[in-house]
Amino acid sequence: MSDDYAVVPIRRTASATAEPAAVRWLLIGAAIAFLALFLFVPLIAVFAEAFQKGWASYVSALREPDAWAAIKLTLLTAGIAVPLNTAFGVAAAWVIAKYRFRGKNLLITLIDLPFAVSPVISGLVFVLLFGSQGVLGPWLAQYDFKIIFAVPGIVLATLFVTFPFVARELIPVMQALGSEEEEAAMSLGARGWQTFFRVTLPNVKWGLLYGIILCNARAMGEFGAVSVVSGHIRGLTNTVPLHVEILYNEYNFTAAFAAASLLAVLALVTLAAKSLVEWKAARNESTYNPAGGE
């Protein structure tokens, strides 16, 4: 037989996950223990303390006027911040992914700014701008318009800390999709809004929904920036996280953990929604790309 047709034995390379079974079980056990210690145990403790005095005390703590006012303010703040940040995120992602312009990197940096700045510092900036002794404070006082220690300040602080989420989820999705489908639609006579609603939006809907879920969770659970600008006025400017802090500092543990359980439920719902969106997105991707990108 010629050397050209010599059989060369295939060398089997060691798998990257070929550790002994003991090592694998040790790593899995360490991960489960970590989750149990820092996630499940605190979660169980919150609900156990909330229901320590029974269902009637739990419901009474949530129906108390200050608690109900905090819940309504939290929902109002999220109801304003999430739609505005969704509109901003879609517009910013569209511009960054579809166009080239001067200042593009600066815009991306500004979008990431809330991730780099402490929420407490961002709240302090709003106080320095809109407070009674701030830059715009005298002008606002002249027209009797309150921002700090009022609902507008809470909404502004929440808007600032949550506006990167939708944009940051959509930018890589739109960049990966490119603009070929939009260009094809417009060449066939579609208008701008028709192209957006019939081509772009269906392609990015899972990324958009994922960003909205994260934005809503942060808006309802924000503490640092809201704490600085709210003034902690019970029944007026306290959101649920601030209400929990006040009750806990007053040693009213049952009411504090009852309110905290609402945030815990929100976290669980957010986690479930996040997992569902990820599963839907992966399923959608496998449907349109069954060969796995080959």
Can you walk through the features of this model?
With 294 residues, the chain is mainly alpha-helical. It has 14 helices and no strands. Helix 11 runs antiparallel to helix 14 (253-288). The mean pLDDT is 85.
SSE map:
Blueprint: H1 21-50, H2 55-63, H3 65-98, H4 104-111, H5 113-116, H6 119-130, H7 137-142, H8 151-162, H9 164-177, H10 180-187, H11 192-221, H12 224-230, H13 240-249, H14 253-288
Secondary-structure content class? mainly alpha
**Biggest sheet, open or closed, and with what strands and sense?**
none
Q: Unreliable segments (pLDDT under 50, ≥5 consecutive)?
A: none
Average pLDDT: 85
Q: How would you concisely characterize the structure shown here?
A:
By secondary structure, this protein is mainly alpha-helical. Helices cover 75% and strands 0% of the residues.
